[in-house]
Amino acid sequence: MRYTRSMQWLTPLFVLAVFAGLAVDLWLSQRQAIAVARHRGEVPAPFAASISADEHGKAADYTIAKVRLGRVVAVIDTAVLLVLTLGGGIALLDALWRRSGLSEPWLGVAVIASVALLAQLVNLPFSVWRTFRLEARFGFNRTTPALFLADLAKSLALAVVLGGPLLLATLLLMEKAGRWWWLWAFALWLGVMFLMAWAWPAFIAPLFNRFTELKDATLRTRIESLLTRCGFASKGVFVVDNSRRSSHGNAYFTGIGRHKRIVFFDTLLEHLAHPEVEAVLAHELGHFRLKHVRKRLLFSMATMFLGLALLGWLAGQPGFYHALGVPEPSTHAALLLFVLVVPVFTFFVTPLASLWSRRHEFEADAFASRYANAGELATALVKLHRDNASTLTPDPVYAAFYYSHPPPLARISRLRAAASAPAAAGASA
């Protein structure tokens, strides 16, 4: 009983954090909707020559629709979290599975899988609505019901095939590896993280999309020249058939070490000229050359290490379970509660993570301005905002809290200033 009472403070703190986080999220989303609606009828001057009033209005309506759906999802997610924890949901599922006679770690796998499946079922209607109503309403969705179900089945299969053994191994370590089990778990998770980074582009991503070598010889030559100038080695330049699912455009890197791949959405190549594609790629290269990817990886590793250390301590505190609605301590309950509860508290550091990310984006833009043309990058970003119906007029407080990329006006204004500077013009020649 002494241990149970020692963490009674956690219950009110958890409840306070849950409702404070929800209140902040709803307040910020309301600010965003009001700001976007207020500026719906007027295209910002720097974009007036590139984006029509109708396109600007579409972006505003799309943003507001996503915000409204997000508010509903936030409320539902909060309710589910409270039902699972203080409402006794995890305790009920645990008690039901114990009647089956399963022992650890299979009992833990069954309980955690049940919670994961329940969360998936709760979110499924919102995913369907987002894809077939919201995205379709604004002309972005190209996913068929058959493709949607196929993606869902593949994701579930991967969760079982890849996530199942990892979960089983983690629970075994928690049960058998003694006080310092979390160090072994850290080594395991770290190994899996690197293995997935290697395996994803070659084996997993092709299960969902078709990747083909870039066939445009002129663009390929331009890209190879850029890679040489930037000192970047790649295993290839690929085009992914994202147009099967959506008309949104993007580009990204995948893989690690010498196995990095450059991937362009086919929808992006449809709308950007070659110099614009080169500038977008130069920006992405900047993240690697400026060690942003490495810094984020190291931060993720440090966060994982500290998180597992904290879990290692909490798992031995009976009061941790009682404070969060689980009367019978177990390794699987500790893991499940930790995964559910920690995001409630880390939500409040979101602005710091967003600020760090925005600084990296500005630095990558500056890198791109040295190795490509800043004006072309600005033009490409305007097209991407237009084609993706991204709002040009976000609420500044909402953007400061959530935006991982700088607001478009600030970002594109800086790029255009760099393009007009004599030094930038010389570097781009």
Structure report:
It is a single chain. With about 425 residues, this protein is mainly alpha-helical. It folds into two domains: about 1-200 and about 300-350, no CATH class; about 210-265, Zincin-like (2-Layer Sandwich). Helix content is about 70%, strand content about 5%. The chain has 18 helices and four strands. The protein has helices at about 1-5, 10-40, 55-85, 90-100, 105-135, 145-175, 180-205, 215-230, 265-270, 275-290, 290-315, 320-325, 330-345, 350-370, 375-385, 395-400, 410-420, 420-429; strands at about 210-215, 235-240, 250-255, 260-265. The protein has a four-stranded mixed beta sheet. A hairpin with a 6-residue loop joins strand 3 and strand 4. Mean pLDDT is about 90; it is low at about 425-429.
Topology:
Layout: H1 2-6, H2 10-38, H3 53-84, H4 89-98, H5 106-137, H6 145-176, H7 181-204, E1 211-213, H8 217-230, E2 237-240, E3 251-254, E4 261-265, H9 266-271, H10 274-289, H11 292-314, H12 318-323, H13 331-346, H14 350-371, H15 374-387, H16 396-402, H17 408-420, H18 422-428
Parallel strand pairs: 2-4
Antiparallel strand pairs: 1-2, 3-4
**Strand fraction:** under 5%
The total strand number stands at 4
Order of helices and strands: HHHHHHHEHEEEHHHHHHHHHH
How would you name the oligomeric state of the polypeptide chains in this document? single chain
- The total domain count is 2
Average of pLDDT: 91
